[in-house]
Amino acid sequence: GQAQIGVTGLAVMGRNLARNLARHGHVVAVHNRTAARTRQLVEEFGHEGEFVPAESAADFVASLRRPRRLVIMVKAGAATDAVIEEFAPLLESGDVIVDGGNAHFEDTRRREAALRERGLHFVGCGISGGEEGALNGPSIMPGGSAESYRSLGPLLESIAARVDGEPCCTHIGPDGAGHFVKMVHNGIEYADMQLIAEAYDLLRRVAGYEPGRIAEVFRTWNRGRLDSYLIEITAEVLGHTDAATGRPFVDVVADAAEQKGTGRWTVQTALDLGVPVSGIAEAVFARSLSGHGALREAAQQLPGPVRPELHPDDAAQFADQVEAALYASKIVAYAQGWHQITAGSAEYGWDIDPGAVAAIWRGGCIIRARFLDEIRAAYAGGKPPVTLLTDPTFREALERAQNAWRHVVATAAQLGVPAPGFSAALAYYDALRAERLPAALVQGQRDYFGAHTYRRTDREGSFHTLWGQDRSEVEA
Ligand code: 2AM
User: 6-phosphogluconate dehydrogenase C-terminal domain: from which residue to which, for each copy (predicted)?
Assistant: First the structure.
């Protein structure tokens, strides 16, 4: 076989990935269950590079140079298993199967273990950036063995987005590490989007700005430390006018946010790992709440604050405070996401380099931003920070944002504007800072009703108070 790599599953993502590979001078074998798609790809885009179309699985495999590198781009779940089972028997020891779909990392771990038994490398590979990214340079998060990366890495790096000349692709870690990190990326994306949406809501309902004005504010922010793809596209969406009605586009869109599930996975996994990702969780819950029409309808009659909604005397000053609150909350959300990455890495033995993850998210993906350079720098020193919050750069930003952050959250509460992302971020920050937490009281309650025992601050051991008797303490 002559092809350096093959792609099977030629819907938009697979097709664009194959075109990206071909445009970079690689000979790409292409295959699809329905052969019409394969023919169409070669007809439409054959001039972009060297494609080797195959109609049968056997021809497809035969067209690949060894060790064979075969990328599967089909729907996550049963389809992925079906395609793996179709191709695995045709492959030989040392060949590499790449799953470029949005698989759950536990599925990737299972598939990797099963294929390793059969002498095959299986690489669960997170690919971020959507259709456009797949074609012009995505952020790529491959898991799997180090050996597989030696053969696959250069190909993937050649088609990834580039920032300052560096490819946005690195070997994340063994088995499911790549899909895990991609999952957390999406969770952080949910949190970031929610925070930006709250900033918009506050500028509109508290500062009294119209969407077009807010678009301008966001464009200004995008020239500063908040510079990011998400702020950029938010300004575009807010500046857009609905052609049919002449009204701001954002006002004619139904306010029920949908989700495909990776944010939910992030939170479910965080619960299992015992990692408090409250910013991501609030973002997932906020989308969920928005879709509960009957619940929201029933709640329309509930009373709000007695105080009228006062516009601050100085709306411009409030806008600056929202910018600071957004930046501080964003630091918290990302700190939580990185906590989850390091916790997952420890739990599964992945040895993930947290700075490298920041580096490959600087380009190609939805959360790409200047901000990620700071996170990378925070992990570049000798000893990684326990939390990003205490990195000197972020610590200073949090210090400067203090008053504004608190004022914005307090104002939101007083005026009845929901800001779950901003509030949860601030609560997390204050809880971590607290010298003593009311968790001590919770332990007392648990010991009272369930004899769950507690530890003491002054002595080793587990203790139980005989609440129903003379309230003496016994060592458990
Ligand atoms: P199709 O064109 O034959 O439907 C996205 O759905 C892509 O995954 C499509 O290219 C689709 O092929 C492919 N796909 C979906 N389910 C599949 C399966 N069970 N086996 C093979 N390919 C599948």
Answer: 178-468
**CA–CA gap between residue 184 and residue 192 (Å, rounded):** 12
How much is the pTM?
0.97
One-letter amino acid of 174: P
**CB of 11 closer than 6 angstroms to any ligand 1 atom:** yes
Q: CA 54, 59, 64: angle at the middle one, nearest 5?
A: 90
Mention every residue, 6+ apart, whose C-beta is less than 8 A from residue 44: none
Q: How far out from the chain centre does Cα 283 lie?
A: 12
In tens, the pLDDT along 70-114 reads 999 999 999 999 999 999 999 999 999 999 999 999 999 999 999
CB 428 within 8 A of CB 336: yes
SS3 call for 207? coil
CA dihedral defined by 71, 74, 78, 83, rounded to 10 degrees? -40
Strand, coil or helix: what is 28? strand
- Indicate whether this complex's ipTM tops 0.85: yes
- Antiparallel, parallel or unpaired: β 139-142 and 162-163: unpaired
Q: Is the CB of 83 under 6 A from ligand 1?
A: yes
Nearest-5° Cα angle at 383, 378 to 388: 35
Catalytically active residues, by annotation: 182, 189
Phi-psi region of 31 (alpha: psi -120 to 50; beta: other; left: phi over 0): beta
Mean pLDDT of the 395-417 span: 97
**Closest by alpha carbon to 333, among 383, 380, 272, 286?**
286
Atom 14 of ligand 1: nearest residue by CA position:
74
Q: How many angstroms separate the Cα of 9 from the Cα of each of 6, 39, 127, 294, 429?
A: 10, 13, 15, 40, 45
Q: Which residue is closest in CA terms to ligand 1's atom 17?
A: 79
Closest CA to 368 of 130, 177, 200: 130
Q: Is the CB of 79 under 6 A from ligand 1?
A: yes
